[in-house]
Structure formats: structure tokens, C-alpha cells
Amino acid sequence: MKWQRTFNGALARYTGFQVNRVGKAGQAAKAVPEKRPETPFRPPADPETDRLLTAPVFIISPVRSGSTLLRAMLNAHPDLHAPHELHVRRLRVEFDTSLAERAMAALGHNKADLEHLLWDRVLHRELVRSGKRFIVEKTPANAFAYERLAACWPDARFVFLLRHPASIATSWHEASPDKRTPAEAAADALRYMKAVQRARTALPGLTVRYEELTAEPEKIGRGICDFLKLPWAPELLSYGKPEVVTKGLGDWKDKIQSGTVQRGRELPRPEEVPDVLKSMCRSWGYLS
């Protein structure tokens, strides 16, 4: 029936689900996920007009790798605004009608172009409200979209944050022990590590290790400032309590809330490293 098709189209458009009849007539229908098609993306046609942000900084890291600590440190710099995880890559634009799509095409915009304008506007607004010069974004899932971030902001700068893979997996399990077993945590965290490695291979940037950051915060902090062409700011070492300490938007543990850099946990012994993580440990120099 026409109303059912209209309803299904709207449901899929706004939720990513659609209702399909399963089995014989009279049986309950199910909502099944509909995979969102890949959106073709490209650099801005006119960067000076299409982008408000200048040289945004992205921390590309796996989950539970110390990115909230690094964010808090950088946010203490007078020139850097590093808000909580913003997840802008999940902000989508949809055409409700083919006429809207045609109208935007006549202006030279596809859907990805409009999404990039939206992302840029959201981050720029946040930066302007802070009164600082550059924004820092650290959502771990950005590792899966590094190509699109680099296309959206051709002048973006990337800081790659690494940590011992076994420590990442342990911390990921401890974050939600009722949600994932240690083995599941290792396998899930490995997805992020592989994405970060792909990004490190494809993009220029600075690589920072969590263990070195917590052991020698001034030395590593100065290196990051040099990379960003900013003066050293001692405030990085005593960053104060982050404004947002909420599970799902970054780390919320006591170490972060202390307001100063704390030493990381002891590195796992080689025999404690799960087999699934050994290759990544060798790739990142944590195992010989």
C-alpha cells in the first residue's frame, strides 16, 4: 500500500531502519537495519570560501589510549581549544526530496560537500566561543574516517597517539566489564589500532606514545607544541579538571580528574600479551 511505502521510506531516512514483512501473513513484522551507502567525498572546491576553520588538529588514536589526557593538556594551551569528543563525522545531511538534491547539485554540492560544511561550521562555532586560535578534536572513531577528514580539511594537522596494545585492551575491558570480555575487548580495540595504523601510513603527522607522554610530559608536550608551531606553555603540565568528564565523551576516571599528568600503568610482560595483539605490538615497537 502507498501509505506503507511512504512510512517505510521516512523510517529508513530518519532512523536507518525499515519494516519488512517476515514469514506468512499475520506474523509480526521486524525492523531490520538498512546499511547506509558510502557517500562520495572530495576536497572543498574553494577552501577559502567553503571552510571557516584554519588548520584544525586531530588526535588519531585507539580507544583507551590516553587521548583524553592529551586533550586536557592541549586544552590548557592559550592557543588551543580541545573540547570533549564531538563525533562530527556522524552528523549527516539528507535530501528529503529529489528537488532539494537537484537544487544543491546546481550549486555544485553533493551530500558529502554539505556534510563537510556542517562539520566545519559546528567546529568553527565551538572554536569562536572559546576565543582561541585552533581547535583540537580527538574522537577515537575518527581513525575510521581519516581519509575523509583529510579531504574535508586539506590543511588539517594530525597527532597519532599510540599505547601498548595490551594496555589498551585491558583498559577497554575495565571500562565496561559487563559489556565485553577481555578477549572481546582485545578484538574490538584491535579494529581501532589497525585504523590508526592505516592513518599513520597514509598521512603526515606527529606520533606520540602514551607511555612517554606520562613519563616525560614536558618533553613530549614541547615536541607537540613545536609540531604545531606554537610556543611552549607550562600550563600543559597542570591542566586542571576537564570541563566534561563523562563516559562516552572521553575518559572519566580519577587520573583524568586529578588535573595533573599521572604516570601510566606498568607495561604488560611479553607473556601477558594476547596472541591476537602480538603482531600489532611488534609493528608499534612494543615487542621484538
Describe the structure.
With 288 residues, the chain is of the alpha/beta class. It has helices spanning 2-15, 47-50, 67-75, 98-106, 111-130, 146-152, 165-175, 182-202, 210-215, 217-227, 254-257, 275-283; strands spanning 17-20, 30-33, 57-60, 80-81, 134-137, 157-162, 206-209. The strands form two sheets. Strands 4-5-3-6-7 form a five-stranded parallel β-sheet, with helices on both faces. It has a two-stranded antiparallel sheet with strand order 1-2. Helix 7 crosses helix 8.
- Helix % is 40-55%
- Work out the strand percent: 5-15%
Structural class designation: alpha/beta
Mean pLDDT rating: 87
Encode the helix/strand succession as letters.
HEEHEHEHHEHEHHEHHHH
| Count of strand segments | 7
- Number of separate helices: 12
Largest sheet: 5 strands, parallel
Uncertain residue ranges: 22-33
Distance separating the two termini? 64 Å
Summary tags:
two-stranded antiparallel sheet; alpha/beta; 43% helix; 12 helices; 288 residues
SSE blueprint:
Elements: H1 2-15, E1 17-20, E2 30-33, H2 47-50, E3 57-60, H3 67-75, E4 80-81, H4 98-106, H5 111-130, E5 134-137, H6 146-152, E6 157-162, H7 165-175, H8 182-202, E7 206-209, H9 210-215, H10 217-227, H11 254-257, H12 275-283
Parallel strand pairs: 3-5, 3-6, 4-5, 6-7
Antiparallel strand pairs: 1-2
Helix pairs in contact: 7-8
